[in-house]
Amino acid sequence: MSALPAPLALDLRSRSLTRIADLAAAELEAVLDLAEELKRLHAAHEPRRPLEGRTLGLLFGKNSTRTRVSLEVAIAQLGGTAVQLPPSELQLARGESLADTARVLSRYLDAIAVRTGPQAELDQLAAAATIPVINALTDEEHPLQALADLLTIRERLGGLDGVRVAWVGDGSNVCVSLAAACALVGADFACASPAGYEPAGFEVVRDPHEAAAGAHVLVTDTWTSMGQESKREQRARDLAPYTLDEALLEHADPGAIVLHCLPAHPGEEISPGLLYGPRSAVWAEAENRLHTAKALLALVVR
After folding, report:
1. In whole numbers, what is the pLDDT of the chain averaged over residues?
2. Looking at the structure, do residues 281 and 192 belong to the same domain, yes or no?
């Protein structure tokens, strides 16, 4: 079957997602609603292929597992095709501008997912493109991860309004996107980070126990993201008091769940007992990268 599950109240066709702020609250909820339904249909072996003949370009300048695979599988399950576009193999590597690359790719593709460093590079592509440009991670934001996190929380806790989400550790791009997404859906977001590791634009507390107090969701991320490898030892020392472990979980709500965007380093930012234990929703969170990617593509690609 090719049709989407139900008529859409919101028209997101041709819209880019460069950051969470590109979505209004109702639009974010629409993505989550469709993701939930597409996940149910997939489990029931009832495919929906509304993007027959459509093509998604994957312009990835950084390593990826979940983002690359989820987007490639998502477009395939929707009936379309993914095209890998390593920047080193494009004329970008020989000096062609981002704007000209976007103009050309817009003539071939129906959407582009971009994983790069500077947010400004993604913004340049989006400004010149005439097709949707999707942020598949920049140094500033990771909106696709935030969508999967919210779907996971909604599945496990039954809703999002009034949920307390506590982030502990480095205020990374994932933290920034999740905080912005929580604000849209009425969830309370608290972040505990040491000095120098705060997420841009959000207030933090220094004590991780304060952030975790009564939290329904505890979240962390790797202490050393891509491009920070030379600072690994220093970052490990600075962030050691912010490990997400059983002692910290004791301060949270009795039914609290644990999230991590992966890849994880058990024994550093998260204890093995929480990552692999019964309170972990990490693996469902990883799976939901696929279902939210499908929903977003189905909504924005013409």
Report:
1. 96
2. yes
Distance CA 296, CA 33 (A): 11
Q: Which pairing describes strands 188-192 and 133-135: parallel, antiparallel, or unpaired?
A: unpaired
Quote the percentage of the chain above a pLDDT of 70: 97
Q: Does residue 11 fall inside a structural domain?
A: no
- Domain-embedded: residue 41: yes
Check residue 110 and give its pLDDT.
98
Domain holding 75: CATH number?
Answer: 3.40.50.1370
Report d(CA 288, CA 78) in Å as an integer.
16
In order of 60, 198, 207, 237, the CA distances from 170 in angstroms are 24, 7, 13, 12
CA distances (Å), origin 221, targets 2, 70, 170, 245: 37, 19, 7, 13
Q: Among all residues, which ones are annotated catalytic?
A: 115, 142, 145, 221, 261, 289
> According to the model, what pLDDT value does residue 7 have?
47
Q: Which H or E element spans position 168?
A: strand 164-168
Q: Cα–Cα distance between 202 and 106 in angstroms, integer?
A: 35
Q: What's the pLDDT tens digit per position in 4-33? A: 775 456 799 999 999 999 999 999 999 999
Residue 224 confidence (pLDDT): 81
Query: Residue 265: which residues within 8 A CB-CB, separation 6 or more?
Result: 222, 223
Q: Structurally, how many domains does the chain consist of?
A: 2
Residue 1: the pLDDT is 66
Q: Are residues 265 and 173 in the same domain?
A: yes
Instruction: Please check whether residues 33 and 111 belong to one and the same domain.
Output: yes
With a threshold of 0.85, does the pTM exceed it? yes
Helix (H/G/I), strand (E/B), else coil: 119:
helix
Q: Which structural domain, as residue segments, surrounds residue 294?
A: 20-141+288-300
Residue 169 placed within a domain: yes
- Cis ω for the linkage preceding 263 (within 30 of 0): yes
DSSP 264: -
Say if CB 298 and CB 51 are below 8 A apart: yes
